[in-house]
């Protein structure tokens, strides 16, 4: 179990990141978009934690950073959902492509 | 306990004032203090923070909290600009124009302060974690600020778009930062620089480039530079004007500040082959600058909503500001500083005039029709801002532009294309800037402008006067910069020396 | 020590497997034993005997959401409290003051929510 | 005497300030523009008494870009100064501004704004000629842009907004190119001072390397920038529009002074900073000049509207400036400079008269006018005199300038000059056609000139004739230009 | 034995040994649930002055629960037409699995324990939170108004009481300096945490009851208003799994309280000759009795009281406890 190279974590993180990015850019439902953003952040977290153990210069900073990231990501999701709910009340939709009252 | 007291907490005094004020305001808000009083308190806090910062001007550069927070010439210089801008925007927000629009006006003030705090931390952060937290503090507060008109669909939509775009940007930046951390094993910019300067491995260089690009792209979202500008027009349009003014100025400039610091600190010293990573990456910055200038100015031509127009103009200005960054020279920092100052004054001024005349919530350019007849002074003030935005001599915008020019042209001839495009797009921008002049002076008036409240008068006057003063006697602005933030000494804090 | 670490998580996996297996086994066994005679009346949604009306997936009141938000805030707070508590002995008073400031900030948030009548469950 | 020049340049501010307190805008307009003229006369007087122009220069530190050990590096000074040529231009500006103030008396709506902008415009024009460094030059140069934009757009005729946009964009491009050139020079030499740059370029002691290609590029850019202003042939559309749409008072200044900034810039920067490059391209410049002369003249011939005739005539006459400069010898350059001043006066006179015409009859259509010599004898006389001056009748200023310019070119490029000279014939044709169709034949009757109209017209005419008869009035001061150019 | 197993290098053999042990535990837990329910009913009967189950399996109704389970096993299982079938089936599984999963970290005695995880306490709290998802999933999938309301209430209540629960144990973590449950038990050799952290105990106890959805905090299944709450549409064995989850949690929570506050298997001074397992069982029984007692004594709270109590009383008290503890530790330890 110890012999998973750092590349493995990095590749996983990149895959997660790309899935998240793809979803965030293409999905209609704003909730899914927000979740995809979380996915991207967590990919970064994975990187941070992997690096903090297996990086060129292992150190604890990465884990601390990831704690902060988790917090911030939670706050961001909370704010995002709060705004989404406000929007839903007024527009009855959570679809990103229906948010078009503002001029193109 | 010794440790607690031995730290030089005075360095963070400006931040502490803002934090204290934000907390105090949110508490006071619970006890039905008049909203106006809250606003005044907020302004007072920002001003006293500025005063505190000015008292710190002469202190040598130093750090606190294990090098995560530094107060050096760089941070002082840019923090001052942010605070000035914040004070002006707050002043602008004080009036009751959009009472019906912003029902939670008091929340505006403390969210504003937290956003400002985020921006201030960003200018001073010397550590990726602090930087990230500052960035997010700014972002999250702005998301809510944009959506503060809870019942207004446009505001909701704008906020949602901002959250999504901002969230993606944050995630990208974070991903880039994670690589930076991985390659150096530290989150502290100074240490990072030291580690990277020693590295010579080729594969590291590749990863560094990726890290650079990711971080850069994420931060560019904040600046609303093309092609990552999509959110800006919608958000500017949907947000209440005082928020738009904040986003267009303080928030945007904070993005520049942090970009300058981490890129100059981390990448410009990192060897990559024969040059540095920064040198290799300049082409991307240049491309972005060009794209922003062209897209911003061209698309602005067909906008009929002033806020959208100003949004695109802001995109273009972000492009202008990227030019000295892309063509790093001895003039980069001071030119950007001065241009930011000028941009702050003229943008906030323009938003203030817009705020004064479009109280019915109509942001169409036709709100300016016949303004000269209705309110000559307002029209003249707007003319000053417009001319400054367009870069006509006699205004701060001109000096700033010349300096940016100088920064780009003093260097190698291969960079000449950037200023050339800058100039060409400036000419394009004349078309839409002068259209406002045309409307103000040539068209018939529609409705009367009712009395402008005192706070708007103050904002407009201050902005107009300083736009002119900085245009005619720019030495005033430059002296502040050159004398207090000597470039050669202490400008970037690099550890105990 | 590392073995303990790995084995411990192996145990967690074992428990997870069992936790999933038990319902599957039990329900499969039940399927063999129990009768299956569905009728329309049986499969109607229960609504105290009357015909179901409206969609059941109604919109929730925003207060649920507000509580969820509060939960997120305070739950994340514990992300910081736990490491602090574990390492408190080494950190000392400095960390205590820092954490106090942090928690007071959050308490202000709670107070704010309280005063703004968000904590009211009607 | 140091303060004299600065007083002169900023003297219109006095008028601007008094506009704020009084309602008698017309009076303020005239007195406010009279004051700069008085300043000009004072300076001229002391020049005649033996004070050299150089003693009027004014230097003070302004601001600096960058924080360098060496104090003078990238320092921008506030420096004003004159030589003979630029002083003559300033004099011309002061005269024309006063006449424009007279001509502006029939502006009814928003007169206060009109005069305010006129004063701003005047500061800009005076400053352009007095500026001793590039940045200051540009500063004043651009000051005229918004002022003109508003003047043309607000007080012009039906299509004036398009005209003002046209003006804005063309000149915006021009000044953009100019700024690029200036800042490159600044960046390469570390100074904006005109002399400093000249020395640096000649000695090759610049901060950054200035290659020959770069110099050539800079010169071409300068030529285009000032060519737009002048205007040269393919870049002239905006100028016709402005001439046609703008109020006469504005066109007076525009045709009289603003176009001349192009010529002034070509002489001062093109010829002054890049003499070799100018020399190398002289042939092509001459060609462009000839094209301008012929194109302007031919198109003027077929116009049915006096405004357009005058507009194309301006293009034609600016061609002569180019021809004179391209000759690169004393006669040619002298001719060009004479042409600059003289056409300023002539064009101003003609547009002043045109303004009267439009005020009386609300048209400038040649077909609708006629027989004015009978009903308005004074007007007819002035018009005729102006026309004669324009076509280069000996004894008028126009003759000397055209003569000298062609003389110069005949010495260097006789064939080109010969073709260009054809333009003079065409000029005679269109001027006579236009003037005669207004003064003779049948047409409406109108009130003849009143005193307020006679004074400026007569003053302009007197100056035209004075220069024509005593060329040394102009030739003396501008001798220094020729020294400057080194020929 | 477990300790040695833990220290061997991981391979399939140890894996299967653990599997066997875990199955044993599972059976034990199932047994506990069977008799726990019976005990509860009996105690309730006793307290309410009645007899309780007494028909199946002798005077004490020893086979009552067994009979109940068998009945459920052969009962027809109905899935409503309107339900979201996959989620409906998934709901009970998601609810049950974490309930069993948390048992992995609880040290019953010195020898009888499983995973030795540094963050054991955090693990417990984190994993136990997942059950809420199962409940909401089941409730939502039922497509029934009562279910949905019950599910939402369950979620709201559980997250609200999770905060004080989590906060209250920070005092213990502070004192121990570790989140490993073993360390926590060993740290109580001299004095149990219930004496050092009485406030934390109270908060934890109340929050635990709420987390277990037991009276007086059984709003999610308040039969007087919501029929049966989130499992209204469930029948047969699927329903049984919700119940099972609840009782496994009951077991786990009781064990946790024993471990955290009562010193786990550690004996009372001078009585060390009695084996740890007995001590643990004793303490466990006491806690369980109190929990049942609690249930019988208190009436159900009103929904708004319930929520506000959590946020406005328990949370501040828990936070205050943390800082008092930290301060006291700074001053006296």
UniProtKB/TrEMBL annotation, chain A:
Tell me, what's a Pfam family for it?
Oxidored_q2
- Which transformation does this protein catalyse, written as a reaction? a quinone + NADH + 5 H(+)(in) = a quinol + NAD(+) + 4 H(+)(out)
Q: Where are the transmembrane segments?
A: 6-25, 32-52, 64-88
Q: Which keywords are on file for this protein? A: Cell membrane, Membrane, NAD, Oxidoreductase, Quinone, Translocase, Transmembrane, Transmembrane helix, Transport
In terms of HAMAP family, this protein maps to: NDH1_NuoK
Summarize subunit and interaction data from the UniProt record for this chain: NDH-1 is composed of 14 different subunits. Subunits NuoA, H, J, K, L, M, N constitute the membrane sector of the complex.
Family, according to the entry, reads as follows: Belongs to the complex I subunit 4L family.
> How is this protein named in the record?
NADH-quinone oxidoreductase subunit K
What is the source species? Ectobacillus antri
Automatic annotation (TrEMBL), chain B:
Q: So what does this thing catalyse? A: a quinone + NADH + 5 H(+)(in) = a quinol + NAD(+) + 4 H(+)(out)
- Location relative to the cell: Cell membrane; Membrane
What membrane topology does this protein have?
Multi-pass membrane protein
What are the TM regions of this chain, as residue ranges? 12-31, 38-57, 77-95, 107-123, 129-148, 160-184, 204-224, 245-269, 281-301, 310-331, 337-357, 377-396, 416-434, 454-478
An example molecular function term from Gene Ontology annotations: NADH dehydrogenase (quinone) (non-electrogenic) activity
Keywords annotated in UniProt:
Cell membrane, Membrane, NAD, Oxidoreductase, Quinone, Translocase, Transmembrane, Transmembrane helix, Transport
The enzyme's first-digit EC class, named in words, is: translocase
Q: What EC number(s) is this enzyme filed under? A: 7.1.1.-
NADH:quinone oxidoreductase/Mrp antiporter transmembrane domain span: 125-428
Q: Which Pfam families does the annotation name?
A: Proton_antipo_M
Query: What does the function comment of this entry state?
Result: NDH-1 shuttles electrons from NADH, via FMN and iron-sulfur (Fe-S) centers, to quinones in the respiratory chain. The immediate electron acceptor for the enzyme in this species is believed to be a menaquinone. Couples the redox reaction to proton translocation (for every two electrons transferred, four hydrogen ions are translocated across the cytoplasmic membrane), and thus conserves the redox energy in a proton gradient.
HAMAP family xrefs: NDH1_NuoN_1
Q: What is this protein called?
A: NADH-quinone oxidoreductase subunit N
**Which gene underlies this protein?**
nuoN
Automatic annotation (TrEMBL), chain C:
Catalysed reactions, as listed in the record: a quinone + NADH + 5 H(+)(in) = a quinol + NAD(+) + 4 H(+)(out)
Looking at the UniProt entry, the stretches that span the membrane are 12-33, 64-85, 91-114
What is its subcellular localisation? Answer: Cell membrane; Membrane
Q: What is its EC number?
A: 7.1.1.-
Query: Out of the domains of life, which is the source?
Result: Bacteria
Q: What class of enzyme is it?
A: translocase
**Coiled-coil segments on the chain, per record:** none
Matching InterPro entries: NAD(P)H_OxRDtase_bac/plastid, NADH_UbQ/plastoQ_OxRdtase_su3, NDAH_ubi_oxred_su3_sf
Alphabetically sorted, this entry's keywords are: Cell membrane, Membrane, NAD, Quinone, Translocase, Transmembrane, Transmembrane helix, Transport
Could you tell me the membrane topology recorded for this protein?
Multi-pass membrane protein
Q: Kindly report the protein's main subcellular placement as a broad class.
A: membrane
Subunit info?
NDH-1 is composed of 14 different subunits. Subunits NuoA, H, J, K, L, M, N constitute the membrane sector of the complex.
Similarity comment: family membership: Belongs to the complex I subunit 3 family.
Query: What HAMAP family does this protein map onto?
Result: NDH1_NuoA (MF_01394)
What's its job?
Answer: NDH-1 shuttles electrons from NADH, via FMN and iron-sulfur (Fe-S) centers, to quinones in the respiratory chain. The immediate electron acceptor for the enzyme in this species is believed to be a menaquinone. Couples the redox reaction to proton translocation (for every two electrons transferred, four hydrogen ions are translocated across the cytoplasmic membrane), and thus conserves the redox energy in a proton gradient.
Q: What is this protein called?
A: NADH-quinone oxidoreductase subunit A
Tell me the organism.
Ectobacillus antri
Gene for this chain? nuoA
Automatic annotation (TrEMBL), chain E:
Could you confirm whether the keyword Transport appears in this record? no
Q: Where in the cell is it found?
A: Cell membrane; Membrane
Recorded hits in Pfam families, A to Z, give: NADHdh
Question: Which superkingdom does the taxonomy of this entry point to?
Answer: Bacteria
Could you confirm whether the keyword Nucleus appears in this record?
Answer: no
Task: Specify the protein's topology with respect to the membrane.
Answer: Multi-pass membrane protein
Catalyzed reactions per annotation? a quinone + NADH + 5 H(+)(in) = a quinol + NAD(+) + 4 H(+)(out)
Chief location bin:
membrane
Q: What start and end residues bound the annotated signal peptide?
A: none
Q: What is its EC number?
A: 7.1.1.-
Please name the GO terms that the record assigns under molecular function.
Answer: NADH dehydrogenase (quinone) (non-electrogenic) activity
Q: Which UniProt keywords apply?
A: Cell membrane, Membrane, NAD, Oxidoreductase, Quinone, Translocase, Transmembrane, Transmembrane helix, Ubiquinone
The residue ranges crossing the membrane are: 12-38, 87-109, 121-142, 163-185, 191-210, 247-266, 272-297, 309-328
Per the entry, what this protein does is:
NDH-1 shuttles electrons from NADH, via FMN and iron-sulfur (Fe-S) centers, to quinones in the respiratory chain. The immediate electron acceptor for the enzyme in this species is believed to be ubiquinone. Couples the redox reaction to proton translocation (for every two electrons transferred, four hydrogen ions are translocated across the cytoplasmic membrane), and thus conserves the redox energy in a proton gradient. This subunit may bind ubiquinone.
Could you tell me which NCBIfam families the record lists for this protein?
PRK06076.1-2
Name the family the entry cites: Belongs to the complex I subunit 1 family.
Assembly and partners are described as: NDH-1 is composed of 14 different subunits. Subunits NuoA, H, J, K, L, M, N constitute the membrane sector of the complex.
Query: What is the protein named?
Result: NADH-quinone oxidoreductase subunit H
Gene transcribed to yield this protein: nuoH
């Amino acid at each position: 179990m110890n012999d998973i190279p750092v590349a493995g974590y990095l590749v996983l993180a990149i895959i997660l990141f790309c899935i998240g990015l793809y979803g965030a850019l293409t999905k209609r439902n704003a909730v899914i978009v927000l979740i995809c953003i979380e996915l991207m952040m967590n990919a970064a977290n994975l990187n941070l934690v992997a690096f903090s153990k297996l990086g060129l210069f292992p150190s604890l900073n990465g884990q601390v950073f990831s704690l902060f990231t988790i917090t911030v990501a939670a706050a961001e999701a909370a704010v995002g959902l709060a705004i989404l709910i406000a929007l839903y009340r007024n527009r009855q939709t959570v679809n990103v492509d229906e948010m078009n009252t503002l001029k193109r | 306990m010794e440790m607690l007291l031995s730290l030089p907490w005075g360095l963070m005094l400006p931040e502490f004032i803002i934090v204290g004020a934000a907390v105090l305001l949110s508490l006071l808000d619970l006890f039905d203090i008049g909203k106006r009083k809250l606003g005044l308190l907020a302004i007072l806090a920002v001003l006293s923070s500025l005063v505190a910062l000015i008292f710190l001007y002469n202190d040598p550069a130093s750090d606190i909290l294990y090098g995560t927070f530094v107060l050096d010439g760089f941070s002082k210089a840019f923090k001052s600009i942010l605070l000035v801008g914040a004070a002006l925007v707050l002043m602008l927000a004080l009036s009751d124009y959009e009472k019906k629009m912003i029902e939670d006006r008091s929340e505006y003030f403390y969210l504003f302060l937290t956003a400002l705090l985020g921006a201030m931390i960003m200018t001073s952060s010397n550590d990726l974690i602090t930087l990230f937290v500052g960035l997010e503090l700014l972002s999250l507060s702005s998301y809510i600020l944009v959506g503060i008109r809870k019942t207004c669909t446009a505001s909701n939509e704008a906020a949602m778009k901002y959250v999504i775009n901002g969230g993606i940007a944050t995630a990208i930046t974070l991903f880039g930062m994670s690589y930076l951390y991985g390659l150096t094993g530290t989150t502290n910019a100074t240490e990072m620089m030291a580690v990277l300067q020693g590295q010579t491995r080729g594969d590291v260089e590749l990863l560094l480039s990726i890290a650079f690009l990711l971080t850069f792209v994420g931060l560019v979202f904040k600046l609303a530079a093309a092609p990552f500008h999509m959110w800006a027009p919608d958000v500017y349009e949907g947000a209440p004007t005082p928020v738009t003014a904040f986003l267009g100025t303080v928030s945007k400039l904070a993005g520049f500040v942090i970009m300058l610091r981490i890129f100059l600190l981390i990448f410009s010293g990192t060897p990559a082959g024969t040059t540095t990573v920064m040198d290799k990456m300049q082409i991307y910055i240049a491309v972005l600058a060009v794209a922003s200038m062209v897209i911003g100015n061209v698309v602005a031509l067909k906008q009929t909503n002033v806020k959208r127009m100003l949004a695109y103009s802001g995109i273009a200005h972000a492009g202008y500001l990227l030019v000295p960054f892309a063509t790093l020279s001895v003039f980069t920092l001071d030119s950007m500083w001065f241009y930011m100052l000028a941009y702050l004054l003229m943008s906030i001024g323009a938003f203030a005039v817009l705020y004064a005349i479009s109280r019915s919530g109509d942001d169409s350019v036709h709100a300016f029709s016949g303004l000269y007849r209705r309110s000559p002074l307002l029209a003249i003030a707007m003319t000053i801002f417009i001319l400054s935005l367009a870069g006509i001599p006699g205004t701060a915008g001109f000096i700033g532009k010349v300096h940016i020019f100088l920064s780009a042209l003093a260097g190698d001839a291969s960079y000449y294309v950037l200023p050339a495009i800058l100039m060409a797009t400036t000419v394009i921008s004349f078309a839409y800037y002068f259209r406002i002049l045309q409307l103000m002076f040539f068209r018939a008036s529609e409705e009367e402008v009712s009395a402008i409240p005192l706070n708007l008068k103050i904002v407009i006057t201050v902005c107009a006067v300083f736009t002119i003063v900085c245009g005619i006697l720019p030495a005033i602005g430059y002296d502040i910069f050159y004398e207090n933030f000597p470039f050669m000494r202490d400008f970037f804090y690099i550890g105990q020396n | 020590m590392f073995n303990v670490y790995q084995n411990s998580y192996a145990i967690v996996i074992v428990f997870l497997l069992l936790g999933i297996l038990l319902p599957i086994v039990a329900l499969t066994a039940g399927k063999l034993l129990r009768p299956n005679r569905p009728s329309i009346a049986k499969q109607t949604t229960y609504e105290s005997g009357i015909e179901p009306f409206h969609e059941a997936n109604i919109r929730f009141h925003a207060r649920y959401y507000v509580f969820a938000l509060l939960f997120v805030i305070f739950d994340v707070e514990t992300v910081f409290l736990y490491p602090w508590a574990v390492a408190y002995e080494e950190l000392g008073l400095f960390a205590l003051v820092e954490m106090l400031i942090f928690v007071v900030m959050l308490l202000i948030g709670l107070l704010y929510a309280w005063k703004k009548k968000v904590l009211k469950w009607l | 005497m140091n303060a004299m020049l600065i007083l002169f340049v900023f003297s219109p501010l006095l008028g601007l300030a008094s506009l704020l307190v009084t309602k008698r805008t017309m009076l303020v307009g005239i007195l406010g523009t009279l004051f700069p003229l008085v300043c000009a006369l004072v300076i001229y007087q002391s020049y005649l008494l033996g004070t050299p122009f150089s003693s009027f220069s004014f230097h003070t530190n302004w601001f600096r870009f960058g924080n360098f050990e060496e104090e003078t590096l990238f320092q921008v000074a506030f420096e004003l100064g004159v030589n003979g040529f630029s002083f003559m231009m300033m004099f011309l500006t002061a005269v024309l501004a006063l006449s424009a103030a007279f001509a502006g008396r029939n502006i009814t709506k928003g007169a206060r704004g009109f005069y305010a902008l006129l004063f701003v415009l005047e500061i800009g024009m005076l400053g352009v000629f007095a500026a001793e460094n590039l940045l200051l030059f540009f500063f004043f140069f651009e000051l005229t842009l918004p002022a003109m934009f508003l003047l043309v757009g607000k007080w012009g005729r039906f299509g004036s907004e398009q005209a003002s946009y046209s003006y804005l964009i063309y000149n915006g491009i021009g000044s953009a190119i100019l700024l690029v050139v200036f800042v490159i020079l600044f960046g390469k030499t570390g100074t904006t001072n005109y002399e400093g740059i000249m020395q640096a370029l000649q000695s090759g002691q610049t901060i950054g390397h200035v290659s020959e290609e770069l110099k050539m590029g800079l010169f071409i850019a300068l030529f285009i920038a000032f060519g737009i202003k002048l205007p040269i042939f393919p870049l002239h559309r905006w100028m016709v529009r402005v001439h046609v749409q703008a109020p006469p008072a504005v066109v007076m200044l525009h045709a009289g002074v603003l176009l001349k900034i192009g010529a002034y810039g070509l002489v001062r920067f093109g010829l002054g900073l890049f003499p070799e490059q100018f020399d190398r391209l002289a042939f092509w410049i001459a060609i462009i000049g000839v094209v301008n002369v012929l194109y302007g003249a031919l198109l003027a011939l077929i116009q049915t509207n006096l405004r357009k005739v005058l507009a194309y005539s301006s293009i034609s006459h600016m061609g002569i400036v180019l021809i004179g400069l391209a000759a690169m010898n004393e006669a040619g350059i002298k001719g060009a400079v004479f042409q600059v001043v003289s056409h300023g006066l002539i064009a101003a006179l003609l547009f002043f008269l045109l303004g009267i015409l439009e005020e009386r009859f609300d048209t400038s259509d040649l077909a609708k006018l006629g027989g004015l010599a009978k009903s308005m004898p004074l007007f007819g006389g002035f018009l005729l005199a102006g026309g004669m001056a324009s076509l280069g009748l000996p004894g008028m200023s126009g003759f000397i300038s055209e003569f000298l310019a062609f003389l110069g070119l005949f010495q260097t490029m006789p064939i080109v000059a010969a073709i260009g000279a054809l333009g003079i014939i065409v000029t005679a044709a269109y001027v006579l056609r236009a003037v005669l169709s207004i003064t003779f034949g049948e047409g409406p009757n109108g009130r003849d000139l009143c005193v307020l109209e006679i004074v400026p017209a007569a003053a302009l005419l007197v100056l035209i004739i004075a220069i024509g008869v005593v060329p040394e009035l102009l030739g003396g001061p501008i001798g220094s230009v020729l020294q400057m150019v080194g020929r | 034995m477990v300790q040695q197993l833990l220290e061997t290098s991981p391979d399939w053999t140890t894996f299967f040994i653990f599997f066997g042990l875990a199955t044993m535990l599972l059976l034990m837990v199932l047994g506990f649930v069977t008799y726990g329910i019976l005990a509860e009913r009996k105690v309730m009967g006793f307290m309410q002055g009645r007899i309780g189950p007494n028909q199946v399996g002798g005077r004490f109704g020893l086979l009552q629960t067994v009979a109940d389970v068998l009945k459920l096993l052969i009962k027809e299982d109905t899935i409503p037409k309107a339900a979201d079938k996959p989620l409906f089936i998934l709901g009970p599984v998601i609810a049950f699995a974490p309930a069993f999963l948390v048992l992995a970290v609880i040290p019953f005695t010195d020898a009888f324990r499983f995973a030795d995880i540094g963050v054991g306490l955090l693990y417990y709290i984190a994993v136990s939170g997942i059950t809420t998802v199962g409940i909401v999933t089941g409730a939502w999938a039922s497509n029934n108004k009562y279910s949905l309301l019950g599910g939402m209430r369950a979620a709201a209540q559980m997250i609200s009481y999770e905060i004080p629960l989590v906060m209250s144990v920070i005092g213990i973590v502070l004192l121990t300096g570790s989140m490993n449950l073993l360390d926590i038990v060993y740290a109580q050799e001299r004095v149990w945490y219930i004496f050092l952290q009485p406030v934390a105990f109270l908060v934890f106890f109340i929050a635990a009851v709420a987390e277990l959805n037991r009276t007086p905090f059984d709003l999610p299944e308040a039969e007087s208003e919501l029929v049966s709450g989130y499992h209204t549409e469930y029948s047969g064995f699927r329903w049984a799994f919700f119940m099972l989850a609840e009782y496994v949690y009951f077991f786990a929570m009781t064990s946790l309280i024993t471990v955290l506050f009562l010193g786990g298997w550690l004996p009372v001074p001078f009585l060390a000759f009695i084996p740890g397992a007995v001590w643990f069982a004793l303490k466990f029984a006491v806690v369980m009795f109190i929990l049942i007692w609690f249930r019988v004594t208190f009436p159900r709270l009103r929904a708004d009281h319930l929520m506000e109590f959590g946020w406005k009383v328990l949370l501040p008290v828990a936070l205050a406890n943390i800082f008092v503890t930290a301060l006291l530790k700074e001053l006296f330890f």
